[in-house]
């Protein structure tokens, strides 16, 4: 009898323990659900747009709107070249010098010839004045007067020739001094002091400080839609900046650019801070709608900020049926300013998470604002 009571008590004890375990298990999902609801990340959802249907996208580079290559017209050794790449220079500043001993010698010879020619001219002028008086008094013949006049003219021409030789020597001497044509920055230095400079060989390159523009190439199939004076959207990823510029030049020939037409887009002065020549830029140019507008309107466009990158894959977050973030891999196309085309992985009317108040993970609970 005692064994039966003991067995019954054991059964009751095990049953009680089982009930406690089952009750704790059944209440846990409720706790987790409440916790998930409280910790859900607030997100903003959006639908893809068809933006970019009336614009073209081209690549370009930031460049100085004014640059100059410094070279010389004379041959000689570089005796001085103290500037270096990155130095800021002022207009008229001496940048370097070329050996000029031979040119100085030629100028000295011209000075000596001028002195000699001036003496000969003064004598010829005195003879000419004297014979002019004698000729008027009929004390000199016409033949003598003609000879004196020719001597006077020859002496005058000899003096002028000597002066022109000195002007030439001074001009050649000026080519041996390299000066800055405007305020700017040294961006290239191809030779150093002691090197032999030859006529036309680049020595330095200077770019005007703070004067930037974007040079881009447009294919012949779309150049007809680009108009001078129209606006363009410039995106420079190096400085994470988007600038509204104006098309200032449209090259009418592609003979030397491989079938691509070069255009220049000016950058406003208040947007030039932080820019450097050579930075790559993406240019979006608005164009008029064409017959293909119906096709381009089917483009699926999403903001670049909504794209997630993992290794070489790209994706964006959508919302699952249980209000959790779902990372979906997509294939991207062209970039249009701050928008990017989605070629596959997202339907035109399908919602996606445009922004979130926290870091999203796959399966993270979310709540729409």
Write up this protein.
With 369 residues, the protein is α+β, with helices and mostly antiparallel strands. It has four domains: 41-54 and 296-368, conserved putative lor/sdh protein from methanococcus maripaludis s2 fold (Beta Barrel), CATH 2.40.420; 57-65 and 211-288, Efflux pump adaptor protein, beta barrel domain (Elongation Factor Tu (Ef-tu), domain 3, Beta Barrel), CATH 2.40.30.170; 72-98 and 176-210, Beta Barrel (OB fold (Dihydrolipoamide Acetyltransferase, E2P)); 100-175, Orthogonal Bundle (Helix Hairpins). The chain is 30% helix and 34% strand. The chain has helices at residues 2-38, 101-136, 142-174, 293-296, and strands at 41-46, 55-64, 67-70, 76-81, 88-89, 94-98, 177-179, 184-189, 196-197, 204-208, 212-219, 231-236, 241-250, 260-266, 280-286, 301-303, 308-310, 313-319, 325-329, 331-336, 339-344, 352-356, 366-368. The chain has a six-stranded antiparallel barrel with strand order 2-11-14-13-12-15. Strands 3-10-8-5 form a four-stranded antiparallel beta sheet, with no helix packed on it. Strands 7-6-4-9 form a four-stranded antiparallel beta sheet, with no helix packed on it. Helix 2 (101-136) runs antiparallel to helix 3 (142-174). It is elongated.
């Amino acid at each position: 009898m005692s064994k039966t009571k003991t067995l019954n008590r054991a059964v009751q004890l095990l049953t009680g323990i089982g009930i406690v375990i089952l009750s704790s298990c059944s209440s846990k999902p409720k706790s987790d659900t409440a916790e998930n609801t409280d910790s859900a990340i607030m997100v903003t959802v959006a639908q893809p747009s068809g933006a970019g249907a009336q614009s073209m996208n081209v690549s370009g580079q930031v460049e100085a709107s004014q640059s100059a290559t410094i070279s010389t017209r004379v041959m000689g050794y570089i005796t001085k070249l103290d500037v270096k790449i990155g130095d800021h220079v002022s207009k008229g500043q001496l940048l370097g010098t070329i050996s000029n001993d031979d040119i100085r010698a030629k100028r000295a010879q011209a000075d000596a010839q001028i002195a000699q020619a001036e003496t000969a001219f003064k004598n010829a002028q005195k003879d000419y004045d004297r014979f002019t008086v004698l000729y008027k008094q009929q004390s000199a013949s016409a033949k003598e007067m003609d000879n004196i006049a020719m001597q006077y003219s020859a002496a005058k021409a000899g003096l002028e020739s000597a002066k022109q030789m000195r002007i030439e020597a001074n001009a050649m001497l000026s080519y041996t001094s390299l000066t800055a044509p405007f305020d700017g920055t040294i961006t290239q230095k191809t030779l150093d002091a002691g090197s032999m400079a030859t006529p036309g060989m680049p020595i330095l390159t200077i770019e005007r400080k703070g004067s930037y523009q974007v040079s881009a190439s447009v294919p012949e199939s779309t150049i007809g839609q680009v108009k001078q004076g129209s606006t363009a959207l410039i995106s420079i990823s190096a400085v994470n900046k988007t600038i509204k510029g104006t098309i200032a030049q449209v090259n009418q020939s592609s003979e030397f650019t491989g079938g691509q037409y070069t255009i220049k887009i000016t950058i406003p002065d208040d947007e030039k801070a932080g820019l450097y020549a050579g930075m790559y830029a993406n240019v979006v140019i608005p164009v008029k709608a064409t017959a293909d507008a119906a096709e381009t309107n089917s483009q699926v466009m999403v903001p670049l900020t909504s794209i997630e990158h993992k290794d070489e894959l790209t994706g964006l977050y959508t919302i699952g049926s249980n209000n959790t973030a779902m990372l979906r891999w997509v294939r991207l196309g062209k970039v249009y300013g701050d928008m990017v085309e989605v070629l596959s992985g997202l339907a035109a009317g399908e919602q996606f998470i445009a922004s979130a108040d926290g870091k999203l993970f796959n399966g993270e609970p979310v709540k729409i604002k």
